[in-house]
TrEMBL record:
Gene3D superfamilies: 1.10.287.130, 3.40.50.2300, Histidine kinase-like ATPase, C-terminal domain
Keywords: ATP-binding, Coiled coil, Kinase, Nucleotide-binding, Phosphoprotein, Transferase, Two-component regulatory system
Catalysed reactions, as listed in the record: ATP + protein L-histidine = ADP + protein N-phospho-L-histidine
Organism ancestry: Bacteria, Pseudomonadati, Spirochaetota, Spirochaetia, Leptospirales
UniProt enzyme class: transferase
Modified sites of kind 4-aspartylphosphate: D56
InterPro entries, sorted: CheY-like_superfamily, HATPase_C_sf, HATPase_dom, His_kinase_dom, HisK_dim/P_dom, HisK_dim/P_sf, Sig_transdc_His_kin-like_C, Sig_transdc_resp-reg_receiver
Keyword Repeat applies: no
Tree of life domain: Bacteria
Alphabetized PANTHER family for the sequence: C4-DICARBOXYLATE TRANSPORT SENSOR PROTEIN DCTB (PTHR43065:SF46), SENSOR HISTIDINE KINASE (PTHR43065)
Keyword Ribonucleoprotein: no
All copies of domain Histidine kinase, residue ranges: 158-377
Protein's name in the database: histidine kinase
Organism: Leptospira semungkisensis
Length: 377
């Protein structure tokens, strides 16, 4: 471990010596920095970034409380210990409420090293906690990424299928032109169609790239209507193959939501795919009730606007004992090769980060309804 830098704000050379002698007696090793007034003090905390500050309470033209506020402003995590004369005891105690780490009286300097050790221990605990939090975030981020890659594969598959139509059209148009028996105005018309189809493809590719790139993403006002339409377009192929109907009921006056579009799309895709799975489980073949409805409406709760998106299926339903676990990471009832159990846990993480809520209600072999609530713009 590198040696810690201690900054002493102290105008009396005698007191400074007593303090440093006490530290030496306690076997504490450090690099000493010394300030006697405000100017030296500010320079030291800004340029030297000390690991600890020991401050006298009253100084000529400066005072310990101002030193404390400055420290809280410029280096809020650096422990700050008052070393004060007895006359300042009451005030010194009060400083604890202002964020001082501890105080030691100059005539009880034996308490200095224990106070320092306590502060070091606290600092280490705090750092360990921060590291653990950072690691947790890192792991969650990895899960989110791996789930996104999966969603992207799916998206790419759906898109390849979608892109095929305009490409076929473009090939047909090109063949018509290459025959060479069309007049100029006809060629004009056809080439503008080619342009249109090309633009459609370009839009789709841009969408996929945006989704792929959306690592951190940005919050933007997004139309829920468009998001739901995208969800339907992407899942269309799966819906068709499973003979599932999807109906949408979206309030035309729906407000926008502030969100990372790719992430909320990911949530909607997870919920829709789960609904498809549940329907296929209940009805392996065609059935009139094999349907999903997605609705979106505005709600007002405690004076604030929300958008509630409901995704409802009439599939297998969720048994109450399963319901307790569905948001857990890696929880799946679909078997290892079919489900990873990441869909809902990743979705919940995303929704929480957006300041929203994800909840559900279900009756076994009747229905499941997932509610996604997001703050309206
Ligand atoms: N609409 C639904 N109807 C019935 N059960 C559901 C529904 N949505 C989720 N579940 C249950 O919750 C579990 C967890 O869902 P989650 O989306 O997290 O994982 P998964 O779908 O099993 O796997 P994947 O990681 O591929 O999404 C599912 O295995 C299923 O048992
Ligand atoms: Mg799922």
């Amino acid at each position: 471990m590198r040696a810690l830098k201690f900054l002493f704000l102290e105008d009396s050379p005698t007191d400074l010596e007593l303090i440093q002698r006490e530290l030496k007696k306690g076997g504490v090793e450090y690099i000493p920095l010394h300030a006697q007034d405000k100017e030296e003090y500010v320079k030291a905390i800004v340029e030297e970034k000390p690991d600890f500050i020991f401050s006298d309470f009253s100084l000529p033209n400066f005072d310990g409380l101002s030193a404390l506020s400055l420290a809280k402003e410029k280096c809020p995590t650096t422990p700050f210990i008052f070393v004060s004369g007895t006359y300042g005891e009451d005030a010194a105690i009060q400083t604890l409420t202002r964020g001082a780490t501890d105080y030691v009286l100059k005539d009880r300097l034996v308490k200095l090293v224990p106070a320092l050790k306590r502060a070091i221990k606290e600092m280490e605990e705090h750092n360990a906690l921060r590291r653990a939090e950072a690691e947790k975030y890192e792991i969650e981020e990895q899960l989110r990424q791996s789930q996104k890659v999966e969603a992207m594969g799916f998206l790419a598959g759906a898109m390849a299928h979608e892109i095929n139509n305009p490409i076929m059209a473009i090939i047909d148009y090109a063949q018509m032109i290459s025959k060479g028996d069309l007049d100029a105005s006809k060629i004009q018309k056809i080439s503008s169609k080619i342009k249109q189809e090309g633009e459609r493809i370009s839009e789709m590719v841009k969408d996929l790239l945006r989704f792929a790139r959306q690592e951190k993403g940005v919050y933007e006002p997004v139309s829920v209507f468009n998001l739901i339409k995208k969800t339907r377009a992407i899942t269309e192929q799966r819906l068709k193959m499973s003979l599932i109907q999807m109906d949408l009921s979206i309030d035309p006056a729906l407000p926008f939501v502030l969100c990372k579009e790719g992430q909320i799309l990911q949530v909607l895709l997870n919920l829709t795919n789960n609904a498809i799975d549940a329907l296929n489980q209940r009805y392996p073949a065609f059935n009139e009730d094999k349907r999903i409805s997605i609705s979106a409406k505005r709600e007002e709760i405690a004076g604030k606007g929300w958008v509630r998106i409901a995704i409802e299926d009439f599939g297998s339903g969720i048994p109450p004992e399963v319901g307790k676990s569905i948001f857990n990471t890696f929880f799946t009832t679909k078997g290892a090769e079919k489900g990873t159990g990441l869909g809902l846990s990743v979705s919940l993480g995303i929704v929480k980060e957006h300041g929203g809520f994800l909840s559900f209600e279900s009756a076994l072999n009747e229905y499941t309804r997932f509610f996604l609530d997001l703050p309206a713009v």
